[in-house]
TrEMBL record:
Its cofactor is NAD(+). Gene3D superfamilies: NAD(P)-binding Rossmann-like Domain, UDP-galactose 4-epimerase, domain 1. This is dTDP-glucose 4,6-dehydratase. One of its GO terms (molecular function) is dTDP-glucose 4,6-dehydratase activity. InterPro entries: dTDP_Gluc_deHydtase, NAD(P)-bd_dom, NAD(P)-bd_dom_sf. GO terms for biological process: nucleotide-sugar metabolic process. The keyword RNA-binding does not apply. PANTHER family: DTDP-D-GLUCOSE 4,6-DEHYDRATASE-RELATED. It comes from Mycolicibacterium hodleri. Residues 4-303 form the NAD(P)-binding domain. The gene is rfbB.
Length: 331
């Protein structure tokens, strides 16, 4: 199979490509990535000899047309992904997440190519802390931020291209990922690298917000299952029963790094901050037989801390610029 992976030089995409090369040596992988601030060829260095990396934009219709025509399937990870950036400057989110997905859809439509669209649980908005139900495939869309609104728009485009044009696509909406190669702007790597660079970790508001954590390799195993055996036109929710509030994650991380669990700062909260995400993954478990392998968050977090300790050369060049941006926002 010839597989085109958009956004394969980003956090989840790079982990996906590593696993594809390791576990499916018969698959020829081409990565299309704009190498924005969030993407890096270095994240693909361990598989550089086995992967073709094309530096380009998913909104470039001519390039996308050529690459899709040469492929049997597309795994679409490319996106602008950071909520805080979308609040500061939403335009790139419209271009990549909406126009970029539209551009891909038009090409897979013309060539009859299988598409898997990677999306987020943030399209469903948020839940109350005590809400007894979790997100399911039929939860109404209710996005809160420019990021989640553009991801919701991209999901709607995929659904309508399936229905109107018979495009052979599936969608997955996953919860918060953690693991190696995640940009230092995101919560967990930011705090790990704050400690490693002598900065104090930063918690938005009181830290009561709940995220549903899943290890990136479990997310990617689910994406592979859906790409292989998912029913066309369906949406699958991916989650690992990993709900934790941010304060608990912060204290766990500090303890694992041999720090005082209260040695962090409260900083300005995020505008419109979603309170709680929670995924009900029963359809994926029951129909596709998927189950997470990292079922112990604390040991997954400890491994992730070790990865950042061992791979300073990967994240060090990003750190000062990322913190300078946060400082401007009082975060
Ligand atoms: P990331 O920000 O780490 O990586 C995104 C990648 O896309 C980067 O390599 C970047 O260079 C590339 N990219 C951006 N704009 C592009 C463009 N116009 N053309 C080509 N490439 C472009 O993101 P991530 O965390 O790896 O997320 C990947 C996907 O998974 C996204 O679609 C995101 O919405 C979704 N998702 C992420 C999470 C999470 O917790 N990180 C959870 C659920 C879903
Ligand atoms: O739910 C899936 C989503 O998870 C993905 O679609 C997004 O692409 C991904 O970025 C992530 O979104 P979040 O906004 O939940 O992730 P982030 O890492 O930015 O923040 C996680 C929580 O931690 C959130 O409640 C905000 C808080 N936070 C974040 C940062 C960067 C802090 O308290 N301090 C921080 O320094």
């Amino acid at each position: 199979m010839r597989l085109l992976v958009t956004g394969g030089a980003g956090f989840i995409g790079a982990n996906f490509v590593h696993a594809a090369v390791r576990e499916h040596p018969d698959v020829h992988v081409t990565v299309l990535d704009a190498l924005t601030y969030a993407g890096s060829a270095e994240s693909l260095a361990p598989v550089a000899d086995d992967v073709r990396l094309i530096h380009g934009d998913i909104s470039d219709a001519e390039l996308v047309e050529k690459l899709v025509a040469e492929s049997d399937a597309v795994a679409h990870f490319a996106a602008e992904t950071h909520v805080d950036n979308s609040l500061a400057d939403p335009e790139a989110f419209l271009r990549t997440n909406v126009i970029g997905t539209f551009t891909l859809l038009e090409s897979v439509r013309r060539h009859g190519i299988r598409l898997h669209h990677v999306s987020t649980d943030e399209v469903y908005g948020d839940l109350a802390l005590e809400d007894p139900v979790r997100f399911t495939e039929s939860t109404p869309y209710n996005p809160s931020s420019p990021y989640s609104a553009t991801k919701a728009a991209s999901d709607m485009l995929v659904r309508s291209w399936v229905r109107s044009y018979g495009v052979r696509a599936t969608i997955s909406n996953c919860s918060n990922n953690y693991g190696p190669y995640q940009h230092v702007e995101k919560f967990i790597p930011r705090q790990i690298t704050n400690v490693l660079t002598g900065r104090r970790p930063k918690l938005y508001g009181a830290g009561a917000n709940v995220r549903d954590w899943i290890h990136v390799t479990d997310h990617n195993r689910a994406v592979w299952r859906i790409l292989s055996d998912g029913e066309l036109g369906r949406t699958y929710l991916i989650g690992a029963d990993g709900e934790r509030d941010n304060l608990t994650v912060m204290r766990t991380l500090l303890r694992l790094m041999d720090r005082d669990p209260n040695d962090f700062e409260h900083v300005t909260d995020r505008a419109g901050h979603d309170l709680r995400y929670a995924i009900d993954p029963s359809v994926l478990r029951d129909e596709l037989g998927w189950a997470p392998r990292h079922d112990d968050f604390e040991s997954g977090l400890a491994e992730t801390i070790e990865w950042y300790r061992d791979n300073e050369s990967w994240w060090r060049p990003l750190k000062d610029a990322s913190e300078a941006m946060y400082a401007e926002r009082n975060q």
